Amino acid sequence: MNRQPICAAIHDMSGFGRCSLAVIIPVISAMGIQCVPVPTAVLSTHTGGFTDFVFRDMTDFINPCREHYKKLGIKFDAIYSGFLASEVQVDSCLKFFEAFPDAKRIVDPVMGEDGVKYQTYTPELVARMKELVRKADVITPNLTEASMLLDEKYPEKLSEKETRGWLERLCRMAVSAVITGIPLDNGEHANVCLDGKTGEYTFISWEPLPASFPGTGDIFASVLTGKLIAGESLSDAAEAATDFAHHAVEVTMDNGQPTRNGVEFERILSDLIN
Ligand code: PXL
Question: What is the CATH number of the domain that holds 34?
């Protein structure tokens, strides 16, 4: 009998706007993997472009979930973390990693975008995110988050050579790293990854599309996680994740909706089903 892989997803659940668990659960499920959501917070909407959102911190929920899963003898193939609501949740993620040592550890250090920190992220939480990243097999920062992890000023553009230097520095923190959405000095955008185990470097570039949407990073990292669970190399997983995220943005471009409503990935979700 074929066992379905299982992925714990430690992220927030934002109701409207297509990010975090609202994207991660369908994407990972479509890839034939059981997604076990462990909410870090519950929000009415995401925080990118909305005000007055309702927010409930779920810090005291994560450790009891971990204990329950341990008692049940669940074997996670991967633990994939993202948006955290408090510094204590870094400890909860670290304990999750320790409790399930055979699981791949994918950390999306969700902290900001376009050079701006998310409203709920304190400097202390940013500092603690660096600790979590050090325990990860793969991290998936965007350029804003990479600059925060490396204590660099947010650059408007990078050259391919500088990009490679940043990746190498990130791979001294985590085992492997992907940096997403880098504006290059030649006008293109790129996702780049370095497999810290094999040394394989992958550079994926494209002509930029005229709008950027919240949640695109979650789509990318979810597909990447699914492909890694399926045993693909980091390079192949990053290629597939880039293709899917890029296509999802393409089919959303002309919908006439505010970008804060997110990417209409539902239109192409079936592409992920084997
Ligand atoms: O997509 C990243 C993300 C996750 N969680 C929350 C967010 C965002 C981006 O805006 O606001 C709550």
Answer: 3.40.1190.20
264 C-beta neighbours (distance < 10 Å), count: 17
Are 101 and 135 in contact by the 8 Å Cβ rule? The answer is: no
Residue whose Cα lies nearest atom 6 of ligand 1: it is 46
197 domain residue, yes or no: yes
Whether 26 is in a domain gets the answer: yes
Q: Which of 11, 13, 18, 20 to mutate to test the pocket of ligand 1 (most atoms within 8 A of CB)?
A: 20
Number of domains in the chain: 1
Q: How far apart are CA 164 and CA 191, in angstroms?
A: 11
Ligand 1 atom nearest 23 alpha carbon: 1
* SS3 of residue 238 by DSSP: helix
pLDDT in tens, 87-108: 999 999 999 999 999 999 999 9
Domain hosting 100: range is 6-256
At 226-263, the pLDDT tens digits run 999 999 999 999 999 999 999 999 999 989 999 999 99
Asked if residue 215 has its Cβ within 6 Å of ligand 1, the reply is yes
- Per residue in 122-139, is it b (16+ CB within 10 Å) or e — as a string? eeebbebbeebbebbbbb
Rounded to the nearest angstrom, the distance between the alpha carbon of 3 and the centre of ligand 1 is 32
136 domain residue, yes or no: yes
How far is the centre of ligand 1, averaged over its atoms, from the C-alpha of 83 (Å)?
7
Note the pLDDT tens digit of each residue in 153-207.
999 899 999 999 999 999 999 999 999 999 999 999 999 999 999 999 999 999 9
Residue 1 in domain: no
Ligand 1 geometric centre to CA of 215 (Å): 7
The verdict on the CB of residue 83 being under 6 Å from ligand 1 is yes
